[in-house]
Amino acid sequence: MVGKLRGLGYKATPQRLAVLEALAAEQHQSLEELRGRCPGVGLVTMYRTLDLLSETGLVRRLDLGDGPRYELAEDHHHHMICESCGEVSEFEECPVDTRSLADLGFEVNAHSLEVYGRCAGCVGGERR
Amino acid sequence: MVGKLRGLGYKATPQRLAVLEALAAEQHQSLEELRGRCPGVGLVTMYRTLDLLSETGLVRRLDLGDGPRYELAEDHHHHMICESCGEVSEFEECPVDTRSLADLGFEVNAHSLEVYGRCAGCVGGERR
DNA sequence: TCACTAACTGAAAAATATTTTCAACTACAC
DNA sequence: GTGTAGTTGAAAATATTTTTCAGTTAGTGA
Asked: pTM for this one?
């Protein structure tokens, strides 16, 4: 991580390391959540660092319907979004097979899947 | 569409119909793009309508890294995002099999897949 | 180890984006 | 038609993001 930053000619400052550590704590956090984990980092630097990390591809910004959120760019990442209670959870097992995309000439580096539906709790309780 | 709105107790106003029509013209549009297609609709109403449509599940807001965008909530939708040139395209063939999620008790209604990599043009031209 | 420099930071200000308020308007049920 | 709850748009308020700029610092090379 740090190596990648330096390799691209960027400095590994304490602020950047703090943001990376905050990102590692949990996936899809909001700016405010990240700020809570980086008390020493100024607001402007948060924005700039997240921009920088997004540009280098280390971080991805996404919006699952509740405002911008950030997460470390993993090779593949899977979200399950409950349309009843709004809960966003993650799951490991990968139901995606991107091999067919090679036929379109696209070189696949990573993917992100969002599944919308109703979580076990809402299905069980028949909550609307 | 209109029926669904009315069924939920909402009125089918010309503004809402205009926004729905604008959404139908193209997927993942920004607010400004949608505004361009709805000259008669005020800015506040745009925001309110998109909120309303998102709540009813007709529309989904997403952020692929370049700010919020909106699209009609299709059952499944697949984006291909080129990390070199930033182009976002869509593809039809579905490389996702969500059947395994039933084991987790999750009831799947729809999904959205984002594939990150390099598009045919960038791979061919070796553009960085 | 030290000095140099390009890169970086934070506070304030500016610019943008989004939400709230409220009086006037309208779709639609009766 | 009439009544009314729901809807709209303009202005104001608020929130979010970006820019500016003077001061600081990581990392390089001597």
From this structure: 0.85
CB-based contact, B24 to chain A, within 8 Å: no
CB contact under 8 A, A95 and B91: no
Phi and psi dihedrals of A37, rounded to 5?
-90, -5
Q: How far, in Å, CA of A81 to CA of A92, rounded?
A: 14
CA distance A12 to B69: 33
Q: 3-class DSSP state for residue B114?
A: strand
Is B112 an 8 Å CB contact of chain A? yes
Whether the beta carbon of B39 falls within 7 A of nucleic chain D: the reply is: no
Alpha helices in B11-102 (DSSP H): 14-25, 31-37, 43-56
AA identity, residue B71: E
pLDDT single digits (tens) A39-56: 999 999 999 999 999 988
Say whether residue B113 is in contact with chain A using an 8 A CB cutoff. Answer: yes
Q: Find where tokens 């390799």 sit.
A: A7
In whole angstroms, how far apart are CA B96 and each of B37, B45, B50, B101, B114?
33, 36, 28, 11, 11
Q: Nearest chain A Cα to B75, which residue?
A: A116
Q: For residue A46, what are its two tokens?
A: 């948060």
Please tell me the distance in Å from A6's CA to the nearest CA on chain B: 19
Cβ partners under 8 Å of residue A67, min gap 6: A30
